[in-house]
Design goal:
alpha+beta, two-stranded antiparallel sheet, 4 strands, 27% helix, elongated
């Protein structure tokens, strides 16, 4: 897997890191803070989503995960469905209940009544 968000394509960005140490604000050139190269990586999380009815593990940035959770909470259709939410959907629970009800029940042992 690449270090890129599956939905928005957010990836690593190169930039410069500025260190602040004593003497930076002194105004003298020799005490200027050095700038070094740095890679800024996005906060990617491994999430299982449904793609064409099949669960697939992808990397999503936290911004996209928050967007999906907010859409689900507000009753809107999200752009991605989490595989975990499909398992707990009411339709999936109904099929499990039917499967349990179809199984033959074990008979309890008969006990003699004393009169």
């Amino acid at each position: 897997m690449k270090n890129v968000c599956f939905h928005c394509g957010k990836g690593i960005i190169m930039g410069r890191q500025h260190t602040h140490h004593r003497g930076v604000a002194g105004g003298r050139w020799k005490k200027r803070a050095p700038k070094t190269a740095k890679a800024f990586a996005p906060n990617l999380q491994k999430i299982k989503i449904m793609v064409g009815g099949v669960a697939k593990q992808v990397k999503l940035c936290t911004k996209c995960i928050k967007r999906v959770k907010k859409d689900v909470r507000d009753g809107k259709k999200p752009f991605i469905t989490f595989a975990a939410s499909v398992k707990t959907a009411p339709v999936a629970l109904d099929t499990k209940k039917e499967a349990v009800e179809k199984k033959p029940a074990k008979k309890a042992p008969k006990t003699k009544k004393s009169e």
